[in-house]
Amino acid sequence: VEIGLGSRTNTIMQSAFFKIAQVIPYDKAVEQMKKAIVKTFGRKGEGVVKMNNEAVDQGAAVIKVDVPAEWSKLEGKVVINGVKNAPDFIKNFVQPINAQKGDDLPVSAFKGMEDGTLPAGTTAYEKRGIAVDVPEWQMDNCIQCNQCSYVCPHAAIRPFLLDEKELAGAPSGLLTKKTNGKGFEDLQYRIQVSVLDCTGCGNCADICPAKTKALVMKSLESQMPQKENWDYIASNVTYKDTISPKDMNVKASQFAKPLFEFSGACAGCGETPYIKLITQLFGDRMMIANATGCSSIYGGSAPASSYCKGDDGRGPAWANSLFEDNAEYGLGMALGVEKMRDRIERKMKESLTEVNAETKAVFELWLENKLNGAKTMEISKAVVKTLANETHAVAKEILALKNYLAKKSMWIFGGDGWAYDIGYGGLDHVIASGKDVNILVMDTEVYSNTGGQSSKATPIGAIAKFAASGKRIRKKDLGLMATTYGYVYVAQVSMGANQAQYFKALKEAEAYPGPSLIIAYSPCISHGLKNGMGKTQEEGKLAVESGYWHLFRYNPLNEDEGKNPFTLDSKEPDWSKFQAFLHNEVRYTALLKAFPADAAELFKASEDNAKWRYSSYKRLAELDYKIIE
Amino acid sequence: VEIGLGSRTNTIMQSAFFKIAQVIPYDKAVEQMKKAIVKTFGRKGEGVVKMNNEAVDQGAAVIKVDVPAEWSKLEGKVVINGVKNAPDFIKNFVQPINAQKGDDLPVSAFKGMEDGTLPAGTTAYEKRGIAVDVPEWQMDNCIQCNQCSYVCPHAAIRPFLLDEKELAGAPSGLLTKKTNGKGFEDLQYRIQVSVLDCTGCGNCADICPAKTKALVMKSLESQMPQKENWDYIASNVTYKDTISPKDMNVKASQFAKPLFEFSGACAGCGETPYIKLITQLFGDRMMIANATGCSSIYGGSAPASSYCKGDDGRGPAWANSLFEDNAEYGLGMALGVEKMRDRIERKMKESLTEVNAETKAVFELWLENKLNGAKTMEISKAVVKTLANETHAVAKEILALKNYLAKKSMWIFGGDGWAYDIGYGGLDHVIASGKDVNILVMDTEVYSNTGGQSSKATPIGAIAKFAASGKRIRKKDLGLMATTYGYVYVAQVSMGANQAQYFKALKEAEAYPGPSLIIAYSPCISHGLKNGMGKTQEEGKLAVESGYWHLFRYNPLNEDEGKNPFTLDSKEPDWSKFQAFLHNEVRYTALLKAFPADAAELFKASEDNAKWRYSSYKRLAELDYKIIE
Fold it and tell me: What ipTM does this complex have?
């Protein structure tokens, strides 16, 4: 931290190793390490080289710590980090695998999971405690906007509303304040951090808009007492997301439980906040087909599942397919569900005159609202309840299909390598089908998980593998391509730039009765942000302000009303900030080091292209779609 | 012909077989055949059923022909149909294979073809004589527009210009007339049909714009004397395509030799005329990557090759790859050629101060024109000639690469199943690359060669396999999608609707120094044209007139000049003709029979969609691209 390398400890640890182990003379080791640093980081600039050299030097300052003699007699035992009452699945299955003892599991350990399905929500038991610093809530400064929670990549900071009873049993350190707003008079407000799940990125504190920051990063050690508060809340406090309906606005959405939490994504990940919000709004009736990539790794590295369930036991059903066919995989799920629901419809219609009056009424209600997600969630419960008293044979048949009574929110997730490149043929096929699926593309403009290869989403001038001298051609406009169908909802978003625009796009996309495509700008560790991963939200904002990324929504439903389906949501960029934006990320500045002449040319081309693209969006946004009879 | 079934002889022959063979009582056979007709053709309408029933009845009118006794002693011998002096390759390789004796070929027969390369132009030796009727030229009526030749799917009708010497040796029946136009004073004009290569579709006669038709369909037998004329011309008359440069206009282009001829395509094929013109303009420096499909079958069913060479021995290099990677295959060829040509460039530059003055001059000329196709064709000859006298070692190195001196015209061919569906991911990847390749999509709106499966190019309401009750969603707009890159030349054409527009688009596409995509409306036997395959050009015209298909060009170069890159080439359709267009093709009318209620709805949706698409093109065409400084 003092050197400026943040939480990157590898160089200092390497030096310390050579100092202690003496496998080669330490002087020689220092010489070679510094040589390697120039070779590895030379392109990234002198600053980075200097910091790493200093890390080598500081590694020499080792302190000998004597280990108590009794440690040699300790018994090996798996300890679940501070979690009480872990379920058997965690104790008998997850922990052995995480402790590299998976090979020792007997076949019988897989009983009940023969089809490969694993229980959800296991990451809550990891409590990795990897953060150096975690946010401390400054209650008096807090304006209760919930933005910290909205942007947190790991769902480790959340607002809670506590009623009298919940407050009564709380630990004494659990302080609360009066909740703002009408309808909340009887509830106390609190921001709670799960300090052992936090990765310490600091985006929450950075984004906090309070006059004096309501979140301050403090050492994990100093915040350990918060663990007790978190545990109390996790077990005793409900998520009150209906007083203001959770789909009302950004703030209200954060009172809903994230059904995606504590994933293994990088600290500050630009992708995960997008997913988290989707699970908050639709997670209780959601299915996800996830393309291989970062999102499949942090989504479900067996036996871990970062997708979890709400108090009603409902949560996303998640599965992962390959790069080249994930969209098709999701379409298959959608078609399967459609068939089941059509069957329910047919069964209900066929028996409508034969069932009792109560059943008839609830069937009719369901039939009328079959395609309405939120309503079928409610009606499904009524159907199940009513059928308990129905003697007609149809009752049994429909109860057998009860999991399909609620309209599913079908999602297809993946990165740009999948969506723009390898899986694009399938993505195109799926949106062309006109089926009601929702696609989220987390666009990091590079194959992130496989090691930073160039994709068709990589912009001109960016360095990537297979584009070591800078990508030579402009980024593909996936969103605009999808709009040509005329029946595909498309949105291009950047949460950091406009939280409400993403919120709106997400709701519109999910509600649209056809294919939807959301392309989400996702700052990534592979970009080499000079401001660090604690500023990913800020970076998403700069991207739009500078004209590097544009926000738009294309809603086919507008056209039926004689309105332009294309809405440009970002305002005229401040082009003077464009070059500064590029100079703020190593994927661009590395080019300056390696190929300075090319860099000048390519950076200009990048700006020209951004302007070209903005002009084209502007022209589209100004088109007249008035219906002339 | 009398019944109205044209050249479809199968039903009548089947009936005759049962009449003669008496394998079952003939009455029973008739009964069963008529039952089968209703089952097979019922959907296609009463007319078709009636005609087939009549064919069954007429099949009974068999006439006994006595075979001369000496026929029993004839020796089996492969006869090359009327072709004198066939090359050994034809006699020893092609003919045995075509006679189903390929298994008997010794390994040594493949000597010189170990890499799988086969000689070009073998279809000229097939002379299949499959036409019932072929066109007879009415010299006095002819206005010398050359349109018959432009539209001929099999290159079986061509205009020739004969000089005095060529005329002198001609057979007496070879009549000619004075050639129209300046510069042609010394040449006589003639339209010559190769009657044994003609398939008898009749598009030439149909398209003939002369006041009184200059082409009349007559029985093949009556036209057999034309064979002598064709043979004379094929061996003795040159193609005079430089008096008016062949790339000047449609008419001039037809004096160039088609380097694609006598293919196995269906009579009246809507695809092949597009390919033929490309070979006339660029065939002498052309490489083709051909997706599997009709175009790969008629392009090169081993050992047949319908691609041939000009008098200079140059012609298209052609190869076929699979559906899923043909675009990539073509890109690979382009990249390979680019590397070779870059190597030539480097070698020339490195040796520029060391070679003799003449070599230096020709190197400089080449370097200056490296990317100009037509010019490098000329300069290449000069380079080769000059290097014969060059002592510098570079001479040998460049002569080893002489096949790469001329800039190649790189083409990627395929149908809509390839381009819109299975190969689309690759096609997108290739156009995104920005490389100078040209793509021709022959859009039949259905997987033609594999048996009529629905593709994303299949329009709403059309019947196809996997869309037996009519396609339910609108056609994908491949062209518009490609325009979103901003650096891809795109044209949507229909030769039958506007010959000049295709000609222009083709020239622009080839000249464009980046990826080009031409989407060509191709009437197909799978459409079930009520007017028959002799009216495929007419059908392409009706498609545009009625608003079913639209013509446009998107040329990125325009934008540099502050002009709109998008040009809508077809005028406001006559929408009153739209429904009639649908009712003129069995792929639509079959729906009327099978699902009348759906048909009404889908046909309306089809028209609505056509209007929607036209409106969108119109809006794009009206955009203002003025550069504001």
Answer: 0.90
